[in-house]
Amino acid sequence: MVGIAAIPNSGKPRALIYTPAGRDASVAVSLIDEAGLESIAAADLSTFASSLSDDIALGVLTEEAVRSSDLKAIASWVSAQPSWSDLPFIVLTMRGGGPERNPSAARLSEVLGNVTFLERPFHPTSFISIIRTALKGRHRQYEARAQLEALSEGERRLQTALVAGRLGAWELELSSKALSVSPTCKEIFGRGADDDVTYDDLIESIHPEDRPVVEARLRQTIDTGRDYSIEHRTIWPDGSLHWTEVHAQLYTDRYGSARKLVGVCSDITTRKTAEDDLRRLNETLEERVKERTREVNTAHQTLLEEVAQRERAEEQLRQSQKMEAIGQLTGGVAHDFNNLLMVVLGNLELLGKHVAGDAKAMRLVDGALQGARRGAALTQRLLAFARQQDLQVRPVDLAELVTGMHDLLQRSVGSSINIETILPAALPPALVDANQLELALLNLAVNARDAMPEGGRLAISLREEQVIGNDGGLGEGSYLVLAVADSGTGMDAETLKKAVDPFFSTKEVGKGTGLGLSMIHGLAVQLNGALVLTSELGIGTTAELWLPATERPPERPAEELPALEASPGLKILLVDGDTLIAMSSADMLEDLGHDVVEANSGSEALALIRSGQHFDLMITDYSMPGMTGAQLAQSARNMLPTLPIVLATGYAELPAGTDIDLPRLGKPYNQAQLAKEITKAIAGETTPILGSSRIATASVPRLAEADDRRDEIGDGVRVI
């Protein structure tokens, strides 16, 4: 028997026992030990109550010891348990647990809640079975606690991103018009953080001329489910005029009824002021042009042309700045999501090994893994839009690439759509990333399918074009044009202008991310090419990818070499500034049989190396405060020139001048990828960085995996 004072709060689940009469305590302790659980025996009922905590896995009581006792302290603790907790109790009784034989059992059931009555005398096997059942239930509660903590951390990171982007968050319950707003949202509408702000307050603050448009747009969103997006003037309590941009989505209940609006807002007064200044400047310039044309007819047309060119340049500059700002924010958020997914995927993969025999648990783990992998696919689209994804640019035979994808494309669009290919022979290769181009082509095909609900024709063609001078941002030279044309519903001119805008979609809520065409546009620009869209209502849409041609022959994959196996038992120095990621990676490494020493910064890692400890390998994150992974690797190599090093990163855009030749491990990674990079590093292989830091080994799955992911890719936007 273990006394209450002998074991401090160790954090390990234990059984708490109060059985003061006879041999009950010793028998209970013995059987609980046999079930593999530590136990604590309380000397009295008050000690039992004060010892209750989240670390207690179950409680064991005898009915006669508590029948006439004051159970207020126990009842108070039971009722105060957190939402994830429902501590199981086992009551040993001489009269069973039924109300007809044991009326006092109802009182104990009401006080203890989750209680099982075991009538004496009982067989030891029955008691052990009840103990194990209760312990299994308690472990599920602990898992629920861990999931709730992870969700809470994700919410904190989301709030940090909103604050960093100066975005105000708001939520409106449609039935009650109850409005909840963040402090930043209040600030955007000229209110203080402690001010009470209602829905009517915000409507009243909108400029009277803009209010009807706002209300009409809200009704349209509620009636149709279309995303809410608007810019309007706002009058602050001090009378000053400001501009506000608002975006929201409609949430419905399971019956399809509109339930609430959730959205963000931002202050765009500075931008609007600049636009007004620019407009007034243009108006002034136009007036001067008119005056000049009256005086000098010969200079008339040459000067309207100069103004038009300037206006086009200014518009291009505004769009470029806008896309750059959104891209930076998106890339940062995607990087943080990669780190979060690293923790989720790593822990789920290891958890799957521990519950391999539990079909229900494996189903739950597999479901969570699929969701996390979809999140990883979404971050790839975000990084593609932000132009921060890895690219592996090589000469590629586009005709061969399209031909190899034919079966996948046909399965993706269905039998009601006929795919035609026009692939001339003897075309030169194009300089592209084959992985990304395959995903882009699949995305365009699925978008075309959505525009042809009744079936139709999908034509995929290749041709070579020459660009002379600078045409629409394309440099002079030879280009291969990959065209995807459908016979679908097409787009009007206004919709076509917005087609590649990030998060723009005409699909219903939940049917698309609005990043499909934005990702393809970003890919084309990164490859020094362009995406050209043409469309006509009722006729169809054609998407053309202009890609640089090359005279270099396509590279053929080298014959596969047998996989190198890194022996378990390596001593590995793991460096990561994020404790959660370090913990997940350490668990995966230890599961592979390695000895792991953790460091949370570059300086801490260098101190461990200077201490004289021997390490077979160092794995370091790139983005860390104080010292980057590249700087750490350089310093470590100065001390230990032969130390193998693997560099892990959430995205591949390293600063200019980062000249280090290391194996690269893209986040989020799984245990197999981790083992593969360890093997390569120990064998002395490296992943070369080609050209600038934006062009490196890609971490996107090959086409063989794209077949399993086409449903995820099908979430790309299709404008119809």
TrEMBL record:
**4-aspartylphosphate PTM positions:** D621
Its EC number is 2.7.13.3
Q: State the UniProt keywords alphabetically.
A: Coiled coil, Phosphoprotein
Q: Does the keyword DNA-binding apply?
A: no
The identity of this protein, by name, is histidine kinase
Q: Which catalysed reactions does the entry list for this protein? A: ATP + protein L-histidine = ADP + protein N-phospho-L-histidine
Classification lineage? Bacteria, Pseudomonadati, Pseudomonadota, Alphaproteobacteria, Hyphomicrobiales
A Pfam family that the UniProt record links to this protein: Response_reg
Q: Which Gene3D superfamilies match?
A: 1.10.287.130, 2.10.70.100, 3.40.50.2300, Histidine kinase-like ATPase, C-terminal domain, PAS domain
The Response regulatory domain extends over 571-682
